[in-house]
Amino acid sequence: MEQDQKQQILNRLKIIEGHIRGVQRMVEEDAYCIDVLNQTRAIQQALAKLDVLILSRHLHHCVTTAIRSEDVAERERVLTELLQVFENIHR
After folding, report:
1. What domains are there in the chain, each with its CATH number?
2. Against a cut of 0.85, is the pTM above it?
3. How far from 16 is each of 21, 81, 87, CA to CA, in Å?
4. Is the pLDDT of residue 1 over 80?
5. Cβ atoms of 53 and 8 closer than 8 Å
6. Rounded CA separation 35/37 (Å)
7. How far is 15 from 50, CA to CA, in rounded Å?
8. Do 68 and 79 touch, CB atoms closer than 8 A?
9. What span, in angstroms and rounded, lies between the C-alpha atoms of 63 and 56?
């Protein structure tokens, strides 16, 4: 993984960590439930953005390399892997 991509992912994880700690504080302080829900939604959105960064990296490098490969089994493995990820998203 290239250093700038890795740094983007790490930065996103730090943002998510901060959101989670904030929600933890809110619960400890008996914050209004809707405010807590708004923050957990922000965490979900941040995780979705993280998924996009990781998936983009995977598609541009790992999948592209596998598809260009002469190894049919490797191509099939990568495609099956991607389909499984998308199937799990929609469960």
Report:
1. 3-89 (1.20.58.1000)
2. no
3. 9, 26, 25
4. no
5. yes
6. 5
7. 10
8. no
9. 10
